[in-house]
Amino acid sequence: MHRQTVLNIMFAAVLLCTGKATAQAQELQQIGHLIDDALIFSDKYITPATDAAVYQSVSGWITSPKKTKLWEATIALHVNAFLTPQSDRTFTIHNSDLSFFQLEEGTSATVPTAVGNKHQVYLHGQLGESDVRLETPQGINMKTVAYPYLQGSLGLPLGTELVIKYSPQVNLKKSNYQVYGFGLKHNISQYFDTITQKKFHLAALVAYSKEDISVNFLNVETDYGTLGINRINGLVDTWQGQLSGSKEFGRWEAMGSFIVTRSEFKYRVSGDTGTIEDIIPLQYILNTRLKEIYKTRVNYIGEAAIKYNIGNFNVQTVLAFGKFINSNVSLQYTIH
Predict the structure, then answer these.
(1) What is the distance between the alpha carbons of residues 313 and 335, in angstroms, rounded to a whole number?
(2) What is the pTM of this model?
(3) How many CB atoms lie under 10 A from the CB of residue 263?
(4) Smallest Cα–Cα separation from 93: which of 154, 58, 137?
(5) Which tens digit of pLDDT belongs to each residue from 227-259?
(6) Fold classification of 3-85+141-335 (topology level)
(7) Where does the secretion signal sit in this chain (predicted)?
(8) Do 214 and 233 touch, CB atoms closer than 8 A?
(9) Within 13 Å of residue 85, how many CA atoms lie on the same side as its CB?
């Protein structure tokens, strides 16, 4: 049975069970169309932010491919700065793409994604005999997105290092961002004395990170109540493999890396439920439908870094590049 048909049956069953079966079949169909439009808009609005989150989460895991001494620990404060490309800041909506809403002016409009500007346009639709009108959501309006996080590492036996990354939830204007994860780095150059004698170092890393991006979304009010879809989350689970090499020049160390990532993107409506929940479980239905736009992404990313040592302290800058560009600056303290 088609998913939309199943949802219409759910609407009707809930209305009958609650004794509020006042909506006509046409209104049930209109609610289904409204959900379809919300799904289309969700995909185009939030996906650029989740794409960007991958670059933010994979940067700076390896601070040096050098072999870490047993139980040597490093604590670091990192600051990420992500450059949002112009092509990902907007998308175009057409009346022909929508089944419930229509633009109040014209047949198409360019609107911001979650990483775009504050420009808004009005959409309107008809639910039963009532008009439904909303403004498209704003973006965070930041060309550069900067946020801090903590990272720690511990030297383990056999030239292996445990790395842990964590940031509290960071408020970025109209959105929130959080990342955390762990990884294992293994030094390869320890098996080749000729390489280490020349101050060359090689290492490989496997890491997992989880990102949660939440942004303001569609604030929809109807005669049947608020819809409760005014916030949407992008949940990103990323596995990465990384190969890094470096060369020491006195207090300086230059590093280059190649990174492969595989990310799972999931989406859900969050926050307070709307008053329409007295009639239908709309947030549950929306989250079920959002599974239709779940995605898997594979990225190939280059990374270049340079580090300067001052005793137990290191200062490092990292640049990750591919589809996007992400820079990272860190202050590291090593406990020998």
Answers:
(1) 10
(2) 0.85
(3) 22
(4) 137
(5) 778 888 999 999 999 999 999 999 999 999 999
(6) Lipocalin (2.40.128)
(7) 1-23
(8) yes
(9) 13
